[in-house]
Design brief:
The protein is an alpha/beta fold. The chain is 34% helix and 20% strand. The protein folds into 2 domains: 5-83 and 197-225, Periplasmic binding protein-like II (D-Maltodextrin-Binding Protein, domain 2, 3-Layer(aba) Sandwich), CATH 3.40.190; 85-194, Glycine betaine-binding periplasmic protein, domain 2 (D-Maltodextrin-Binding Protein, domain 2), CATH 3.40.190.100. A 5-stranded mixed beta sheet has the order 2-1-3-10-4. The longest helix has 15 residues, at 13-27. The N and C termini lie far apart (42 Å).
């Protein structure tokens, strides 16, 4: 008697959106799905302990590489769903002279930019790399400082700043639904402290491959979403599931969001 497949994803909406697509492929092969979500480090640990069969997804090699190294011998990469990357961004009303992270120490940014760089939870790649960027670029000498929080802390502070036209730098990433609502400009990272483009990789526990089946794995290996579609799926899942969804269109109504 077979059991349900245990599919885990990191507890963020865009990971949830991607996981739904993976689960559709697995369901098409007759599998029942037991889905779960957890913070970054916890979900990788669960995969390493054999408590889930599939992880959607690991951002490799940069953002989640340290977690993957601990379990690499137990898992197999199946497909890359999209190509994410970590960024620091400013709203587009901040003048183009503020083009790189280094420019945060120069006029006009140093005169007007909010010094708090509000991040999300520890464990996310951008949360691990941002404090290093503060030090690497000497931003702490001008009072800039990074603070961990929740995804809502990070996004909510950005949305509020844009509504008030305040200058703010946000540690962010793509894909993420907010890019459909706001015009954000990426700051150049000349020292490459924030890493490069990752591969959003579906990992399968080697011990679960027989349970999943060759045909299901073959179909899963052909699944690709891309960044743009993942952002659209993220937008839809946020509207469907969140009880505290921020109406981003009220902040920047000129942007078209696919329905």
């Amino acid at each position: 008697m077979t059991r349900p497949l245990r599919v885990g994803h990191i507890k963020l909406s865009f990971h949830d959106a991607a996981s739904e697509q993976v689960e559709l492929v697995l369901r098409s092969h007759g599998h029942e799905i037991e889905r779960s979500a957890a913070p970054h480090k916890d979900m990788f640990a669960r995969l390493g302990r054999g408590e889930i069969d599939v992880l959607v997804v690991a951002w490799l090699p940069w953002s989640h590489g340290v977690f993957h190294q601990e379990i690499a011998e137990k898992v197999r990469p199946i497909t890359v769903l999209y190509e994410p990357y970590a960024i620091w961004a400013v709203p587009d009303y901040v003048p183009v002279e503020v083009a790189s992270i280094e420019d945060l120490l120069r006029t006009p940014a140093v005169d007007r930019m909010d010094r708090l760089i509000q991040g999300m939870a520890p464990g996310a790649g951008i949360s691990e790399m941002s404090p290093k960027a503060v030090k690497a670029y000497g931003l702490d000498t001008a009072g800039y400082h990074f603070r961990n929080g929740t995804e809502d802390d990070c996004i909510g502070r950005l949305v509020e700043a844009v509504a008030e036209q305040r200058w703010i730098v946000t540690p962010f990433w793509r894909p993420q639904a907010l890019h459909l609502r706001l015009n954000l400009r990426h700051l150049i990272d000349p020292k490459s402290v924030l890493g490069g483009t990752d591969n959003a990789t579906v990992l399968v526990l080697k011990d679960s491959e027989e349970l999943i089946g060759h045909e299901a794995l073959a179909d899963l290996s052909e699944l690709y979403l891309g960044n743009s579609l993942t952002e659209i799926l993220d937008e839809k899942i946020r509207r469907r599931r969140s009880t505290e969804y921020t109406d981003y269109s009220a902040v920047h109504p000129s942007r078209h969001v696919p329905s």
